[in-house]
Amino acid sequence: MDSKGPSLYAQAGPSIDMTRSMEEDSLVDGPLISADALHSAIRREFQPVPTHFHAGLLSVLHVLYVVLSICLGVLCVLKFGQEDVCMKILGNVKGDSVIVFAKVALWALVVLFTVCVRRHHNRVRSRGYLRFYRQTQDLRYLPLTIHSTGSVALLALLAARLSQTVHTYMMLSVLGLELLVTVPSLIYYTVKVMQFNGERAAPDVSQEEISHTYSVSSQPTETGFRGGSSLEEVVEKQADLIEYLKQHNTLLSKRLLNLAAEH
C-alpha cells in the first residue's frame, strides 16, 4: 500500500502542473485592459460650477424688487400725488399687498436658488473638491436665511396693525435691510465661484498627495504636529475625505467592470 501511494501521486503530479499552466496561459492570453483606456476612464476633466450666473441673476432681481417696492410704497401707498396712475396699473389691489405678493415670489426664487446651488455643490464634493465645498457651505444658505427672517418680520408688521404710514416705512426698511445684507453675500459667493472656475485646480486629494510628496522630499515633518487647525476642522476634513473616497472607489469599480466587459 505504501509503495503504490507515491507512484500514484507521481503520476498525478505532471497532469496537475499541466492543468495549472494551461489555466495561467489562458489568463495571460485573455483580453487585457489597455493603460490608455484605463487612464482615460479614471481621469476626470474639470467641470465648472455654473451657479454664479444664478447668483448674479438673483441679485439683479432683488435690486429691481426693492426699487419697485420703494416706488410703489411711496407713490401708491403713501399717495404722493400719483393716485390716478396707481389706480390704472393696480386697479382695486392695494400697493402693500402687491409688495407682499412679490416678496413671496422672490422668496420662492431664493428657495429654488438654494436647491440648485446645493445640488451643484454636492456634485463638486463628489468630484473631490472638499475645500471649496467647506468654504462655501455657509454662503449657500445665507440668502435663504435672510429672506426667511425678513418674511417673518413682514408677517409681524402685518399682525401689529400699525398706522399706514408707519407700516409702510417699516416694511420698506425691512426690504432695504434685506437688500444690504443679501446682495453683498451673493456677490461674495459669485467671486468665490468664479475664482474656483478660473483656477481649474485638481481635486483636493491629488493636491494633498503632491504637497505631501514635496514636503517629504524637501524638509522633514514633525510627528504629531498640526498647524493651528482645530480638532473639529480635522474631523470634518477626514469625514469629507472618507465620504469622497467611498464614492470614488465605487465609481472606479463600476468603470473597471464596464471596461472589462467591453474588452
UniProtKB/TrEMBL annotation:
GO cellular component, one term: late endosome
TM ranges: 53-78, 98-118, 139-160, 166-191
UniProt entry tagged with the keyword Cell wall biogenesis/degradation: no
Subcellular location: Membrane
Membrane topology type: Multi-pass membrane protein
Keywords in alphabetical order: Membrane, Transmembrane, Transmembrane helix
InterPro entries listed in its UniProt record: TMEM192 (IPR029399)
Sequence similarity: Belongs to the TMEM192 family.
The protein, known as: Transmembrane protein 192
Taxonomic source organism: Stegastes partitus (bicolor damselfish)
Biological classification of the source: Eukaryota, Metazoa, Chordata, Craniata, Vertebrata
Gene that encodes it: tmem192
